[in-house]
Amino acid sequence: MQKGESMEDGFKVIDGYLMVKLPEEIDHHQASCISKSVDQILIQGKANSIVFDFEDTRFMDSSGIGLIAGRYKKAVCFNGKVYAVNVDRHIKRILYMSGLDKMIEMVCKEKN
């Protein structure tokens, strides 16, 4: 895989970072599909850190929390980190309430 080569919709590897563009709603079905894809990329050694982009995300239930927590555990096994970018006020609140803010690095949207 070449630097910055696109793999499939919503997933791109750039310099060892897996960029994951999250959907508008993260529910059980979405979280399961995303988890499988991310895990496969990590296991193949194409990336070791994950950047979750929440720009379009408006809803996330407990499955989304599980998605991030589970990928954090896997990334750490590969000496990687997990980041959340474009986090709005609602998603930021969920991440703080779940304690994920202590495990991942967050970059919030301007006016939260």
What are its keywords?
112 residues; alpha/beta; 3 helices
Show the helix and strand layout.
Elements: E1 6-8, E2 11-14, E3 17-21, E4 25-26, H1 28-43, E5 49-53, E6 59-60, H2 62-77, E7 82-87, H3 89-98, E8 105-108
Parallel strand pairs: 3-5, 4-6, 5-7, 7-8
Antiparallel strand pairs: 1-2, 2-3
Average of per-residue pLDDT values: 90
Assembly type of the chains comes to single chain
Flag low-confidence runs.
1-7
- Separation of termini? 37 Å
In total, the number of strands is 8
Short overview:
The chain is α/β, with parallel strands linked by helices and 112 residues long. It has helices spanning 28-43, 62-77, 89-98; strands at residues 6-8, 11-14, 17-21, 25-26, 49-53, 59-60, 82-87, 105-108. The radius of gyration is 13 Å and the shape is globular.
